[in-house]
Amino acid sequence: MEPNLERLVPACVREFEPYIPSKPDHELRNLYGCDRLYRLNNNENPLGPPPGAQEIIRRFPPPLGAVYPSGDSYDLRGEIAAFHGIHPDQVLVGNGANEVITFVIKAFCEPGDNIITADRTFAVYEWVAVFSGIEARVVPLKEGRFDGPAMLDRIDDATKVIFLCNPNNPTGTYWSRDTLVAFLEAVGGRQIVVVDEAYFEFVEAGDYPDGVSLVGAYPNVVAFRTFSKMYGIAGLRIGYLAGDRNVVDMIRRTCVVYSVNAVAQAAALACLRDDTGHIARTRALMRQSRAFLREELGRMGLPVICGEGNFLIVKLPGSDTLAYRKLMREGVMIRPMTGFRYPNHIRVTLAGMEAMEAFIRALKKILA
Amino acid sequence: MSAANREPDPVLAMQLEARPSFLSVVTGFVDSAARAFGMGREETLKIGLAAEEIFSVACERICPGKPVDIRCLDGKYFMGVAFRFPVSALDMGALNITASARCDREEDLEETGLILASRSVDRLRIDPDGRNRVRLSVEKDKSYPPAPEESPAPAAFRGTVATATPDGETLKRYVIQASRLSPGPLLPDFFRYPGKVVDMAAAGDVQAVVAADETGRVAGGILFRFLTERVVEILGPQVFDPPATEKVAADLLDACIARTARTKAIGLVSLTGLPGPVQSQFESLGALTLFGKGGRVSERPAWYRLLHEDPGCVVWTDGALGEFLQGEYGRLFLAREIREVRDLGETRSGSSIFSAEVHRERSEAVLRPLWPGGDLAANLERHVRFLGEEGFLNLLFELDLGVSWHASLVPVLLGRGFRPGMILPFAGQADLVVFQYHGTEP
Q: Does any CB of chain B come closer than 8 Å to the CB of residue A329?
């Protein structure tokens, strides 16, 4: 007898459309008939991990594949805590930052509650809330930035968590320290404020705040960081959150232990210990590719939204999803932005010059 | 767009065996439900007649003596009656709209069976409902007063025009103006009844965004609704401020996309006309021909845009359709692995079923294959003949390229005057290809 899924599955899950990730590269090359594929869709670091992390991955002892990793990333939490000058119990490590988003929503929200975030930002905050039966209040960006006053207006007694993405993916805009502090003062500790700093290490602006450093003064702040972007170990899936000890103690109750594998923990440790100038090398490459794209796209008369981070957005004269398919035929994979509520825009990862030149060539061809 | 927060529609349900002696129980039940749901006298009579016909067919041919579930649903602007039958290979054919209750008497064909039920309702459709069950649904719309004739006094728009989800009064004002602006044959009939659109929005069957100035004067609007599981149909945008058409149309479309981009929808489709300024955001799927009364013929262009990356998929087809598919997929840059289905002499038996969805207001019947069988050509022939005799001017046949056995209908359709008109990406398990009947023998 078939299970009665109508009865067994909550409506919030039944109605949710599962996210379908891209097919593997070999399948995409076959479907679109291209020999090679430049991946400019996921904001990956073209330089890969720092040398120390590469060595860890290369030399991981196969017999340790049979041994469970540290269930709560013990050594790594200690190193992260030392890095930020906080206690290890203020850190939780997850299987990518996506998992720690889930921890936070599970810890603070139940049906009837709501979260607040922006309409044009990283989608996972909204997705996790919606399929958990939590209302997601999405506030429109104002001039491409999170609109603090409008977000404050949407707060009510059922609001539990506010998600800020700083710098914002996909606009690259950020709140300065003063703006963030003013917002936290206005919230007054009544809600948890998540500051997602996935692109923290790319930002060179002097007034850009370090969310972790605000936890002492604002114990309702929870900061997210990831090793997927600057540190180039997206394939290993590892990220973390840092917050006040009592807040993190609550979040830990919803945290799935043993979800972070041993290679990821060891590689992340090596990332933090890097002394070879990995961040400086990556930033230099980003500056070069950003300048190249801005100049070329400017010549083509295409508006560009370019802020902090290893990506920029291009406004096209037509459909972004059609451009995606045409660019795939040319072997270039970008991110169409309709799903981010930016119709007719594409997001392009800043990468090596060969990939950037290939993208510009392909874009000129499809728009000709 | 989520139905998760909607109040469930009121439903009255009963179960009984398909016996002729219970016919009065069914008609009494449907009649009582219609009164409870606030249907008018004429609509009550008509949906009662449809229920009587369907139950009679169930008793005589579909599932005599077997249990039948009957659910009456208050859809706010319509009443629906759904019959759920157990079916077996022996009686499948009776579920075709053109099947006769007394198939041995040719002269009775046009006066019996489900086609008679279809005449007294606005919509009739047949869907699979789990294993070995079929759901046959009829819907009758409530009556609404038409939009008033008087025109609003012309006035200049003041201040910024902004988009928002409208309240009931604003929605009515938009619908009244939209019906005046584009009263063509493509616009759905409900645009003539503003109160009905308000009820449709309240029922969650359609969403609206309206552009209004600072005084609340309506500058334009757009309606949108799920056409299939993953495709949203947009109706509009319509703009009533000609100098600002480009900006207002773009803002309305942006607002519509903002509300659909993170739902289960994978694409937007426009089947009722798209203003020039936003056409560049869409891809042309081609055009069907709309045959109207008095020999009027018009184009029915379709536009499409995906909301996400094309994930690609496998499609199944007969070789006779290969060239059309290659051409369309190439033109639309859609990544598809086309697999050809070949008839290698395997036995096909039993009665096929086609689902028929009828839309009398635009003289259209949409056929879909529901069950394979050994009588595809004969079944199609019956449908074409009977629906033609019923006066339907537009016959469409949709094949799901994600269902391999549908491919066996391709040569049958091509041989009976149907031509492939367009592809609707992801409108089925994979893409749908829409065939249109052109009434010419090969």
A: yes
Interface with B, mutate which of A40, A341, A365 (most B CBs under 10 A): A341
Residue for token pair 């409008």: A150
Residue B362's domain is classified under what CATH number? 3.40.630
Q: What is the pLDDT of residues B85-103, one digit of tens each?
A: 887 654 556 667 665 433 3
For chain A, say whether B8 makes contact (Cβ under 8 Å): no
Distance from CA of B265 to the nearest CA of A (A): 8
Report the C-alpha gap between B90 and B355 in whole angstroms.
18
In whole angstroms, what is the distance from residue B372 CA to residue B357 CA? Answer: 18
ipTM field = 0.85
Which residues, in sequence order, are CB contacts of B283 under 8 Å at separation 6+?
A319, A322, B303, B304, B305, B332
CA atoms within 13 A on the CB side of A123: 15
Same domain, B339 and B412: yes
Query: What are the tens digits of pLDDT across the range B213-272?
Result: 988 899 999 999 999 989 999 998 999 988 888 999 999 999 999 999 888 899 999 998
Within 10 Å of residue A106's Cβ, how many Cβ atoms? 17
Is the predicted pLDDT of residue B441 greater than 60, yes or no?
no
Provide the number of structural domains found in chain B. Answer: 3
- B133 located within any domain: yes
| Contact yes or no for B114/B96 (Cβ under 8 A) | yes
Measured between beta carbons, the chain A residues lying within 8 angstroms of B305 are: 319, 321-322, 338
B16 burial type by CB count under 10 A (0-12 exposed, 13-18 middle, 19+ buried): middle
Check whether residue B89 and residue B168 sit in a common domain.
no
Are the beta carbons of A321 and B305 separated by less than 8 Å? Answer: yes
Tell me which of B143, B178, B202 is where a domain ends.
B143
B28 and B138 part of one domain? yes
B39: distance to nearest CA of chain A, Å? 29
Chain B positions in Cβ-Cβ contact with residue A328 (cut-off 8 Å): 335
Residue A130 sits at the chain B interface (C-beta within 8 Å): yes
Q: Is residue B190 located within the same domain as residue B110?
A: no
CA distance B264 to chain A (A): 4
Find the domain containing B29 and state its range. 6-143
Looking at every residue in chain A, the average pLDDT score rounds to: 96
Identify whether residues B300 and B185 lie together within a single domain. yes
Domains and CATH numbers, chain A: 5-49+277-367 (3.90.1150.10), 51-272 (3.40.640.10)
CATH (domain of B68):
3.30.565.10
Task: Give burial (CB, 10 Å; 0-12/13-18/19+) of B88.
Answer: exposed
B266 belongs to a structural domain: yes
Which of A15, A127, A336 is closest, CB to CB, to B309? A336
Q: Three-class SS of residue A77?
A: helix
For residues B52 and B70, what is the distance between their CA atoms, to the nearest angstrom? 12
Q: Which of B259, B277, B306 is the last residue of a domain?
A: B306
Is the domain of B210 the same as that of B90?
no
Can you say how many angstroms the Cα of residue A354 is from the centroid of all Cα atoms in its chain? 25
For chain B, how many residues are written? 442
Q: What pLDDT does B113 receive?
A: 65
Interchain contact, A17 vs B264, CB within 8 Å = yes
Which residues 6+ apart lie within 8 Å of B440 measured at CB? B417
Q: Which residues of A touch B229 (CB under 8 A)?
A: none
Q: How far apart are CA A132 and CA A10, in angstroms?
A: 9
Pairwise CA distance, residues A160 & A166, whole Å: 19
What is the four-CA torsion angle of B357, B360, B363, B369, rounded to 10 degrees?
10
Are B136 and B113 contained in the same domain?
yes
Q: Which residue of A has its CA nearest to B335?
A: A31
| Statement to judge: residues B51 and B88 lie in one domain | yes
Please answer yes or no on whether B307 and A20 come within 8 Å at the CB atom. Answer: no
